Amino acid sequence: MKINLITRTAALIFALFSAQVYALQLSPIQVAPGIYAFIGDTGMRTFDNEGMNANTGFIVTKAGVVVVDSGPTYQVAKAMHEAIKKVTQQPVKYVINTGGQDHRWLGNGYFKEQGAQIIASSKAKADMEERGAGQIAGLTAELKEKIKDTVAVYPERLIEQKETLKLDGEEIQILFFHGGHTPGDAVVWLPKSRTLFSGDHIYVDRLLGVLPFSNSKDWLASFEAIEKLKPKTIIPGHGKVCDLQKAQQQTGNYLKLLRSHMHKAIDAGQDLQSAIDTLDQSTFSKLENFELLKGGNASRVYLEMETE
Q1: Is residue 5 part of a domain?
Q2: Most exposed residue of 20, 138, 214, 236, measured as fewest CB within 10 angstroms of its CB?
Q3: 253 part of a folded domain
Q4: Is 49 domain-assigned?
Q5: How far apart are CA 152 and CA 118, in angstroms?
Q6: Which 3 state secondary structure label does DSSP give 224?
Q7: What's the CATH number where 166 sits?
Q8: What do you get for the CA distance between the two ends of the chain, in Å?
Q9: Residue 260 forms part of a structural domain
Q10: Residue 52: which domain range?
Q11: Is 107 helix (H, G, I), strand (E, B) or coil?
């Protein structure tokens, strides 16, 4: 009897611990009528933030909910859905992945189980297929048991340049310009309220990252296309909700600085190290992750522009 009691007590403690492990609490903020954002950490992926170091969100209509980016894991997607259900009982009809980074799509499996259709650019799907296994391996090392049930579930509805969803009078545009941070980066544009989910095209409050699969030329071209939309409100890929001016200051101007400096350096015959040493990035030094990312950003843009 005593052994059974101990066993039941241990099982109860384990169950309570497991519930705590997966009890990520997400609080959406309303940025426009029917439009909500989940603001993730601006630092790196950690066990504590469960890999949620980017922004996601959702759009509520009387015909259903559209989720923008499904988060980095099955468990985070589930937490997102729990938060959504506190706002509306409408079912999630669509999930739009704005790119191929892990925090944009690895929660797809959860929403697929709820009956949602997954949408992304065709280039994003190709990127997911190429890098997905490595992303899951990397997250497993960091998140351990918190990545439970996360598998690669790819979008089944693909766009090339533009797709429009119309739900109960709400027009939701999915626009692919040129990619940038990842090859398949797209945006979600709501013309009625002039609200933009920028995905990884826009970083504020933290320094953007030019990574081995990024293309700064395409990124800047995509940013210039965003400027032409003249959004009133931007849910950036990383950082707090902002306006176009802040996005220009912290993303557009930084990309222009990198490309302008490296263009002059290459034309002058400077080697890589000289080009990096003469680049003044101090205007952006107060952004989070500046010291971590500034060197790699400069190096990769130089190497990219050498072959243009």
Answers
A1: no
A2: 20
A3: no
A4: yes
A5: 12
A6: helix
A7: 3.60.15.10
A8: 76
A9: no
A10: 26-243
A11: coil
pTM: 0.91
Q: Report the alpha-carbon distance of residue 125 to residue 132 in Å, rounded.
A: 10
Helix, strand or coil, per DSSP, at residue 178: coil
CA distances from 278 to 25, 110, 119, 295, 303 (A): 45, 48, 43, 12, 16
Res. 61 pLDDT band, cuts 50 70 90: very high
Neighbours of 145 (CB within 10 A): 11
**Of residues 124, 276, 305, the one with CA closest to residue 215:** 305
pLDDT digits (tens, 9 = 90+) for 253-308: 999 999 999 999 999 999 999 999 999 999 999 999 999 999 999 999 999 999 99
Identify whether the C-beta of residue 225 lies closer than 8 Å to the C-beta of residue 177: yes
**What are the structure tokens assigned to 165, written together?**
């969803």
What stretch of H or E contains 218? helix 216-229
How many domains does the chain divide into? Answer: 1
In this prediction, residues 47-56 reach a mean pLDDT of 95
The closest of 271, 288, 131, 162 to 139, measured between CA atoms, is 131
- Exposure letters 244-278 (e unless 16+ CB within 10 A, then b): bebbbebbbebbebbbebbeebbeeebeeeebbee
Stretch 7-27: mean pLDDT, rounded? Answer: 49
Strands 195-203 and 233-238: parallel
> Which comes out higher in pLDDT, residue 23 or 102?
102
